[in-house]
Design goal:
Layout lengths: L1 E10 L3 H12 L4 E5 L12 E2 L1 H9 L3 H7 L8 E5 L12 E6 L7 H7 L5 E2 L2 H15 L4 E3 L1 E8 L4 E7 L5 E11 L6 H4 L4 E2 L5 E9 L10 E6 L9 E7 L8 E6 L12 H9 L7 E10 L2 E3 L3 E2 L2 E3 L5 E2 L7 H20 L6 H35 L7 H12 L3 H15 L2 H4 L2 H5 L39 E4 L2 E4 L9 E5 L4 H14 L3 E5 L7 E2 L3 H5 L7 E4 L5 E5 L6 H12 L3
Parallel strand pairs: 1-2, 1-10, 2-7, 4-13, 10-19, 23-24
Antiparallel strand pairs: 3-6, 4-5, 8-9, 9-10, 11-17, 12-15, 12-16, 13-14, 14-15, 17-20, 18-19, 21-22, 21-25, 23-26, 26-27
Length: about 575
């Protein structure tokens, strides 16, 4: 039996665990990752990378590789509801409704104003190899697939784990100061008594992952197409492009049927159902996998027990509506990485790691609840059209015929439906859920201000520099170089942003940084500063005067702000760092 000693052990090599590895490497934290499967995911799973996640990938040098393979926004910026994909019957191949979604169409300008990158679409089976490559390049020899966590114990000041090589059967003892459970809740959380709380499984979903040439019928630019069958409720489902090419060139697809009993189809018996659903009787179909999975709405009662932390699906599970699951897990890892680095580097006490749960668990709660709300509401939308699963076959056809009736009464039916469909913007236009989450308690020093009111449907984002919120994006420039304010934040450094009259803050920051053994980059934006404010965008969102200052954490969230100058800038900053780093 061998032995390894490492500061951090990550259990789980999915999207969250691999992201945690990349972020820790960029923080200079040595770590080991173990994943029981021999390779990354072979099924698509999550496929939407929201705007905040893409900003994080941009900060860590991953975004360009993601964008090289991902579908651009013009290839997925709509959600559609229609009867069938093909066919020539009176209720076949009929568009019920379509709406701009996730930054597409008329939303593009609003999303572009909110951040330096737009969302992207890349299913997990294509994303994880990119993350694995980056993780292995930055931490060679320490990303171990086909290795299983057998057992572990928290010894108070360290964790001792047994890891087995599933190819050779050999075991290794790993001693780590901290263990991150990114294993989807399979083992780590339960072993330390963490409970996933929530109702029993909401519904069984059957996902069929298959290849077929649908170019003749497919409508480009669609993230999700919901099919609402005129006859058979069991054929109401959604179809999603899964790449590796996009639009009419897409080769692989994910078809999701819900609700329904598990085990209803296998790779062979589902083929006739696919043909019947799409109304393409001679379609050549290659089924790769049929899976049944339960939709949950669970949140862990704790994110930390002693030296053990959990992240991603181990901490929160929610319906796929709004696409918050994987994104929330990646953002968990982003929040945790800099805190582990500060503690392991001796710049903060262990109390800083407690702020991980204080900050991320409320976000997990909100995202689970929002996804459930959006999923329930979508069911209400299709019920209103007359095509929900509880609508009998005969009545479904009657309701859809009324919807497409060219008469004045049909106009009324469509007008009513349009108003109901518009309420679904909370499910597919919720920009503020992507970039507007913030922290009220944790590694921040509040300024007594109230958070800005959030639009109930979350389809508008109101940027703010209030402590706990993500640093607002604005375009700035240094000579010919144009960049986002988010680009000012380093992967390991704190960043002090001031106005052109903030020299005293910058001088004080240098002295405080030395005192606390932290790195602080200082930047002045405005006339006379290092960066010019392009088109006044920064002035509109900065929330400070020319003599004020913002302190931004390595995860791009504002830690503290002074709206104006201070009599003793050094004392003020020293108090902030002492509070934030638990010193």
């Amino acid at each position: 039996m061998g032995a390894i000693e490492v500061p951090v052990l990550i259990v789980g090599g999915g999207g969250c665990g691999l992201s945690a590895s990349v972020f820790l490497s960029d923080q200079g934290v040595d770590h080991l990752l173990v994943e029981r499967h021999p390779d990354t995911s072979r099924v698509p799973k999550a496929h939407y990378l929201n705007q905040r996640t893409m900003e994080i990938f941009r900060q860590h040098g991953v975004a360009d590789d993601v964008l090289a393979e991902a579908a651009p926004l013009d290839k997925f910026g709509k959600v559609r509801w229609q009867t069938t994909l093909a066919g020539d019957g009176p209720l076949e191949r009929r568009l019920i409704h379509e709406m701009d979604a996730f930054g597409g169409g008329e939303l593009r300008e609003v999303y572009a104003a909110a951040g330096p990158l737009l969302p992207a679409k890349l299913p997990q089976m294509w994303l994880e190899p990119i993350l694995r490559r980056h993780a292995e390049e930055r931490n060679p020899g320490r990303i171990l697939f086909h290795h299983e966590l057998v057992s572990f114990s928290d010894e108070g000041d360290h964790v001792v784990a047994e890891v087995r090589d599933l190819e050779t059967g050999e075991s290794t003892t790993v001693t780590a100061q901290y263990l991150i459970g990114a294993d989807g809740g399979r083992m780590v959380g339960a072993e330390v008594g963490i409970e996933l709380q929530g109702p029993p499984g909401l519904v069984n979903t059957t996902t069929v992952y298959f290849s077929a040439d649908l170019s003749q019928w497919w409508e480009e630019g669609t993230l999700i197409t919901h099919f609402l069958s005129p006859e058979d409720p069991d054929l109401s489902c959604n179809l999603i492009e899964m790449g590796p090419r996009w639009g009419k060139e897409c080769e692989q697809w994910g078809l999701h049927f819900a609700p329904g009993p598990p085990g209803r189809w296998d790779n062979e018996s589902v083929v006739p159902r696919i043909r019947e659903l799409l109304r393409i009787p001679d379609l050549e179909v290659t089924v790769h996998k049929v899976t049944d999975w339960i939709v949950h709405a669970h949140l862990a009662d704790r994110y930390r027990v002693g030296r053990v932390l959990i992240a991603g699906d181990a901490a929160h599970r929610q319906p796929p509506a709004v696409g918050l699951g994987l994104n929330t897990g990646i953002q968990d890892a982003h929040n945790l990485a800099w805190k582990l680095a500060a503690v392991l580097g001796g710049r903060a006490t262990d109390g800083l790691i407690d702020t991980y749960e204080a900050e991320r668990r409320p976000v997990g709660r909100e995202n689970v609840d929002w996804a459930v709300s959006a999923a329930v509401h979508h069911q209400a939308v299709i019920d209103a059209v007359g095509a929900g699963h509880n609508i009998p076959a005969g009545r479904r056809r009657q309701r859809l015929e009324a919807y497409f009736d060219p008469s004045p009464l049909g106009d009324t039916e469509r007008a009513r439906a349009l108003e109901i469909f518009h309420t679904h913007r909370g499910g597919c236009q919720s920009l503020d859920m992507e970039v507007g989450f913030h922290y009220e308690d944790g590694a921040i020093v509040g300024d007594g201000s109230e958070p800005p009111a959030r639009v109930p449907m979350r389809n508008e984002h109101r940027p703010t520099s209030r402590p706990g919120h993500r640093l607002p994006h604005a375009w700035i420039a240094a000579g010919d170089r144009r960049l986002s304010t988010l680009d000012l934040t380093g992967r390991t450094d704190f960043t002090l942003i001031t106005g052109p009259q903030g020299t005293r803050w910058c001088e004080a920051a240098a002295r405080v940084a030395e005192k606390f053994s932290v790195r602080v980059t200082t930047v002045r934006i405005g006339d006379g500063g290092e960066y010019a404010d392009v088109d006044g965008g920064w002035a509109a969102v900065r929330g400070i005067s020319d003599a004020g200052a913002l302190l931004v954490r390595p995860d791009q969230h504002v830690a503290w702000r002074a709206t104006d100058g201070a009599r003793d800038a050094e004392e003020a900053l020293a108090e902030v760092f002492a509070a934030m780093l638990d010193r």
